[in-house]
From TrEMBL:
UniProt KW keywords: Cell membrane, Ion transport, Membrane, Nickel, Nickel transport, Transmembrane, Transmembrane helix, Transport
Transmembrane segment boundaries: 104-125, 137-164, 176-195, 216-233, 245-267, 279-302
Record-given protein name: ABC transporter permease subunit
Localization in the cell: Cell membrane
Organism: Neoroseomonas terrae
Origin superkingdom: Bacteria
Length: 312
């Protein structure tokens, strides 16, 4: 198990390093002049002397690899520089905005699991009957509706028309309900279909006949031999859904005026705030990597063949 954990951590750290370098290079080699954007945000006239001084102070006159290694050295010490737009340390701004996004993403994961897993099992156990048909139709509609459009519909129904839930802000426990539903709807429907398919596959396994012949109770067979084995593929897909939920949360934050890192990143994009964008990508990639590490560990716990390196 320790070898499995060390191998996963090494791979994820390499992924984090590659993503950070690629994005760093894209910002430096893309269109536009970072020094010019810096002077514009600092409200300094872009004279030739000012541009030369800005390039020297920002390190833009050095080779790309040297610039990246300098940035990486500071990043390892939790120093991501200062935002060109707000002049505040990027690390402080991430620490201020990221918890709200993580809270929304966690609530969306909870909604996805509470909807996708039970309804997927329910549909599989009643295959080709009305519960199965109804859930499949619901899943098809759910994956077809964009989350930002669903967010507007939820606000119109539950906030404007019925007045049950707040439409914007992060003021109390009820304020997260609509954003979480809007963020999780598509992923919950995908999870529902995956759980249904996985449970149907587990129900066809030959060892269930032996379990029935031994006289095991139906609840024991479903719990230990069907549901537990069927959760391996959905648990694997959950790692991919984390990135989707984080991206969806950033879109939904704009609709519900949720004070998360997505709105902050959008402001950084509009102002071409390079330090903020680099810090944002590093923070979100780190969250994604850590979540996938947890999913890998859960997968290895559910399926010993994974941690032993055996074929499935």
């Amino acid at each position: 198990m320790l070898y499995f954990l060390a191998r996963r951590i090494a791979g994820l750290l390499l992924l984090l390093l590659v993503v950070s370098f690629v994005f760093f290079a894209m910002l430096r080699l893309g269109r536009g002049d970072p020094a010019l954007d810096y002077l514009r945000l600092a409200q300094i006239p872009p004279t030739e002397a000012a541009l030369a001084a800005a390039r020297e102070s920002l390190g833009l006159d050095r080779p790309l690899v040297e610039q990246y290694l300098t940035w990486l050295d500071h990043a390892l010490r939790f120093d991501l520089g200062r935002s060109w737009y707000t002049s505040r340390p990027v690390t402080q701004e991430i620490a201020h905005y990221l918890p709200a996004t993580l809270q929304l993403a966690a609530a969306a994961v909870l909604v996805m699991l509470l909807v996708g897993v039970p309804f997927g099992i329910w549909a599989a156990l009643r295959r080709d009957r009305w519960p199965d048909n109804a859930t499949r139709i619901l899943a098809f509609i759910g994956v077809s509706v964009p989350n930002f459009w669903l967010a507007f519909l939820l606000v119109l129904l539950f906030s404007v028309t019925l007045g049950w839930l707040p439409a914007i802000g992060r003021d109390g426990p009820t304020s997260i309900i609509l954003p979480a539903i809007a963020t999780a709807a598509m992923s919950a429907c995908v999870m529902l279909r995956l759980v249904r398919t996985s449970v149907l596959g587990a129900l066809g396994e030959p060892h269930l006949r032996f379990a029935r012949a031994r006289g095991l109770a139906r609840r024991t067979i479903l719990g230990r031999h069907v549901v537990l084995n069927a959760m391996v593929p959905p648990m694997t897909m959950l790692g991919l859904h984390v990135g989707e939920l984080l991206g969806g949360a950033m879109v939904v934050e704009t609709v519900f005026a949720w004070p998360g890192i997505g709105r902050w990143a959008l402001l950084a994009i509009q102002n071409r705030d390079y330090p903020a964008l680099q810090g944002f990508v590093l923070a979100m990639t780190t969250v994604f990597v850590l979540c996938n590490l947890v999913i890998d560990l859960l997968h290895a716990w559910l399926d010993p063949r994974v941690r032993l390196g055996l074929p499935a």
